[in-house]
Amino acid sequence: MFPRRIASRIGVGLGAIALASAPLAASAATATHLPAHTPASCSNQGCNGKDPAATGCSTTFQARTIRTAPIMSHGKQVGWVELRWSPFCGNNWARVISTTGPATLAATATRADHAKTSATGKGTALWTPMIFGRDLCVSATGTINGATATTTCG
Questions:
Q1: Where are the domains of the chain?
Q2: In the beta sheet, which residues pair with residue 123?
Q3: Helix, strand or coil for residue 57?
Q4: What's the pTM?
Q5: What is the dihedral of CA 119, 81, 35, 101, to 10 degrees?
């Protein structure tokens, strides 16, 4: 019976160690999976005309797509245009994405007062510089190889 008692005590001791360390392991795993928050380098009017990626406005945890519109060519969707918004930065921008591979792209973000920012290029994704849009109506227009779509105002 002596060997059983030792084995039993060892098993209980190992179980206690495992239970005691479980919260530490769980908190360590949680801490390593927290999203990194990149602070933006501008806000409100100070972001107007700047690149949302370079300023950190597109990578803040609050940046999001608020409107989308499919871009169609000859009855087939070739991509979409997005109206993006960063509440932290107070600005909008347009982003166009091609789903058919590299293409000639254009994007424009237009405010209701007709102020706008635009970008053109080749590739599969393109975005405009930001346009101040806090409490203002802004729409996004995207073009892929000549096919165009515009979002509603957001």
A1: 1-34, 44-150
A2: 103
A3: coil
A4: 0.74
A5: -80
HSE-CB for 107 with a 13 A CA cutoff: 31
Q: What percent of the chain has pLDDT over 70?
A: 75
Tokens 């005691």 appear where?
A: 20
Q: How far apart, in whole angstroms, are the C-alpha atoms of residue 47 and residue 63?
A: 14
Tokens for 62, please give them: 């609050």
> Does the pLDDT at position 11 exceed 90?
no
Look up residue 37 and give its DSSP letter. Answer: P
- Mean pLDDT over the full length of the chain: 83
| Cα–Cα dist 80/125, whole Å | 10
Compute the distance between CA of residue 125 and CA of residue 144 in angstroms, rounded to an integer: 10
pLDDT at 113: 96
